[in-house]
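Q: Hi! New to this. If I give you a protein sequence and the SMILES for flavin-adenine dinucleotide, can you show me the bound structure?
A: Yes, paste them in.
Q: Okay, here:
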Amino acid sequence: MMSYPADAVLVLVDVTPSGEAASSTAALIGAASTIGSPVALVIGGSQAATDAAAAAGASVVLTADTDAEVLTVPLVDALHAAFTKVQPDAVLISNSITGRDVAGRFAARAKLALSVDVIGVSRDDEGIVAHHSVYGGAYLVDSAPTYGAPVITVRQGAVDARGEAVAQPTVEVLEVTASGAPGAKAGPVEVVEVASSRPELRGATKVVSGGRGLGSKEQFVLVEQLADALGAAIGASRAAVDAGYIPYAHQVGQTGVSVSPQLYVAVGISGAIQHRAGMQTAKTIVAINKDGDAPIFDIADFGIVGDLFTIVPQVVEALEARKK
Ligand SMILES: Cc1cc2nc3c(=O)[nH]c(=O)nc-3n(C[C@H](O)[C@H](O)[C@H](O)COP(=O)(O)OP(=O)(O)OC[C@H]3O[C@@H](n4cnc5c(N)ncnc54)[C@H](O)[C@@H]3O)c2cc1C
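A: Thanks. Here is the predicted structure of the protein with flavin-adenine dinucleotide bound:
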């Protein structure tokens, strides 16, 4: 019978529709390696996804198939089977849409504590501790279960730790018995490919966001130019989204996407608490705003007070000149 590390940390790898390991994998397994021995679970993935999990630091990779028509329940069934076998000290899951759904269902089924949207994990004498950034990043708080292994969803981009690649992982096919628990069924799915060379907002290492200060949809192109010059993803404030400058999928904040990039550039954004809630954990924040008293400057590492219509074209020009 297969034995698993005594300090195993079970990591559910997010798998893309094409069977690849999602970009969150390296940080999830990296986080796991700081608190124990990562054991990865790859459900419905390709060989490339298994290889990616090992390359990220998982010495054991469990694989399982999925009934792709039923949403999330087969993932919970497989996670439950893996948990029962491995008996890990914690379960780490990406704080993605699917990850959050699976984590909630699994924690309820296994009667385990759930910690969501964490920005880091550590281990103390009593077990695993999850670290959270709350109230718009105003406070850092910890959570830890009083019994059992915690189920933890990790904010994409928040963890820098990376595991050491494992050349020859132990790969095991997991036997999963379908629970038959009720789940939504996906009807015909049409994959809409949006051709874009820009990085995806969630998990991007650099983000340039624009706010109401851009003034119009046409002028929002300045944000796109700056993003392209930096190789960054594009974000926006809710005011910019509400004004129709850019679709909702780009909204950063309390009711939008949470990001933790290395670099966050806020252009014409005042820095309302609801916006800060989604970007305050960025490693370096740069703000461009004509109002020197704008609250965004309270959290900015670098601030430029001035008219964005003058500054942004100059920055873009300087960045392009450096590329030549
Ligand atoms: C329940 C709730 C949830 C919310 N969720 C979110 C959320 O998820 N994300 C979010 O972003 N907001 C959210 N909001 C809205 C939030 O409170 C703010 O209204 C919003 O963030 C403001 O967007 P803004 O900074 O683009 O606009 P404004 O606050 O109007 O700021 C525009 C800024 O642009 C600057 N500016 C103007 N012209 C120029 C120029 N030429 N050059 C340089 N600077 C210029 C101004 O000085 C100003 O600081 C939420 C609100 C509520 C009540």
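A: The domain at 206-323 is CATH 3.40.50.1220 (Rossmann fold). Let me know if you'd like me to explain how to read the tokens.
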